[in-house]
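re: ur question from earlier - yeah i can do the single chain one, its not a big deal. heres the input i used so u can compare w yours
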Amino acid sequence: MKIYCIGVDKASLAAEEVRRSDVRFAFFSAVGTWTNEREPCEVCGWHWQKKVPPLLVQWEPSSDVIGDFSWDGPYGYSFVVKEPVAAALAAMGFECQFFPVEYVKPERAARTVPFPYSGPKLLWGQCTQEVGLDMEASGVEQSSSCEVCGDSRYTFRFEGIVIRREMWGRQKMFRIGTNGRSAATFVTEEGRRLLEDKGFSNLPFLAAGEILE
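and the output i got, formated as tokens:
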């Protein structure tokens, strides 16, 4: 069974330089809110900073057209969705939670979504499920490990992923455990079919690997 990474289609974007004026849908930068659970590790520098609701969004010079999905930068993985999209995902059983979004004034005037924001209500989507991958088959290695704080880091993967059937709990949507805090989100063939049937805009799929039969 194939799996797909949802987000901006990096394969097509890599084929040529992307000019921001050519972007069809608006994208944003996530500028907060951040919290620290504890002080950074004095040995390796690892920190426990993470984003918490509300997600602070600053629309970037790109477009003034908001898709059903909006992404954190032209290559980002964090996403916000229009309220009806969030309701549809919940109804279809996608493993995702939704949180409030607030807006920050852009730093410079350009073609972008107007501020103050008065468009459709948007919600920050976070996939709640993690799945392990076959590290050897996926080419994933441990890149660092700290004996003091216990932090371990691994090769990041958004394609070339191999998941063994017994490691998958039949989720339609999931993140990869060894990708750490990355918001990179994946869907199965069934998940892709359900999303495509809804015709959501600004939702490309990138072939990411497979779940072994």
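Residues 15-21 have pLDDT under 50 and may be disordered. not sure if urs matches, ping me
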